[in-house]
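Hey, resending since the last one bounced:
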Amino acid sequence: MIIPPDPLPLTPTTARLIAEAATLPLRDAAFALWWQRSTFIREGEAASPQDLSNRADAIVYGQMLADALAQDRIAAPGSGAILRLRRAHPLANDAELRDVILAVVKFDDDCNRFFANDSTDYWQQVERAVDRASRLSPGYLGTTLRHTRYQLAKSMR
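The C-alpha cells again:
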C-alpha cells in the first residue's frame, strides 16, 4: 500500500504553533493560526522546490502562493487553513471548521476596514478598530483581542 505524502508537513515551529492553538477554544485557535499563515508558508507548507532567480519560476510560485491563500480565505476543503485547524481541534466537524475560519477572516477584514488613519493617537486608532470589529464578532478571548491589537498595529505601520 502506498501512503500519500502528508499534505501538511510539520516542522518544529509549525508543530509548536498547532499545539499552542490546540489549547485554545476553536474560534481563538482559528484566529491564532490565521495570523501565522506566512510562518506556515515560510516553514515549508508551500516551500519552493525551484530556484526563484528564474523570473518565470518566481511568477508561477507567486501565483501558487496567492492561490493557496485564496483557498484559505474561503476555507476550501483541503486548504491549509482547514488542515491546520483540524490538527489543532480534531473533534470539530468540517462545517464547524469552515464556519469558524470564515468568521475569523471576517473579523480580520473588519479590523483592517475599521482602522482609520486619522489625527488621533495611533494606538487609539488600533484599539478603536479592534473594539468595533469585536462588537460585530463577539466571543474572542481577551488574549486574542490583545494579540489582534498588536498584529494590527504592526501591519498598519
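Residues 12-156 form one domain.

Sorry for the duplicate.
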